[in-house]
Amino acid sequence: MAVEFIIEETLDLDERGAFVFARPITGQDDFRVVRGSTLGGLPVKPYVDMPRRVLPDGTPDLNCFQFQLIDRNDLPQIEKGAKVLLEPGR
C-alpha cells in the first residue's frame, strides 16, 4: 500500500549518498521499504531509518523518516515541501 509523505529536507553526503527526510502526511507509519520501493517515483535503497531529531519542546521526533536514494543524481528532483508517495516494491 502506498503512503503519502511530505519532504522535510534533503541531504547529499559525498561519500555516503543522497538522503531524503520525510514525514507521513496521514500519520500512518505502517509501511515497508523493500527492494524496488520508490519515493516520489524515484528508487530508494531497501531500508529506512529514523534520524535523531527533536521537536521544539525537546522531545524526540518519532514521525520523521530517512530514505536513501539509489541514484544520487535524482536528488534535485525532490523538493522540500513536496508531497510524494512511498510505493512498495513489486
Structure, explained:
This protein starts with a strand and ends with a strand. 21% of the residues are buried. It contains no helices and 6 strands. It has strands spanning 3-13, 17-24, 38-39, 42-43, 65-68, 83-87.
Element string (H = helix, E = strand): EEEEEE
Mean pLDDT: 90
In order across it, which strands form the biggest sheet? 4-3-6-1-2-5
Shape call: globular
* CATH fold assignment: Elongation Factor Tu (Ef-tu), domain 3
Largest sheet: 6 strands, antiparallel
Estimate the helix proportion, in percent.
under 10%
Unreliable parts:
none
* Assigned CATH class: Mainly Beta
Number of DSSP E strands: 6
Spatial extent as radius of gyration? 12 Å
Helix count from the secondary structure assignment? 0
> Strand-residue fraction?
35-45%
Oligomeric grouping of the chains: single chain
SS-derived structural category: mainly beta
* CA distance, first residue to last residue: 11 Å
Q: Just name the CATH architecture.
A: Beta Barrel
The number of domains is 1
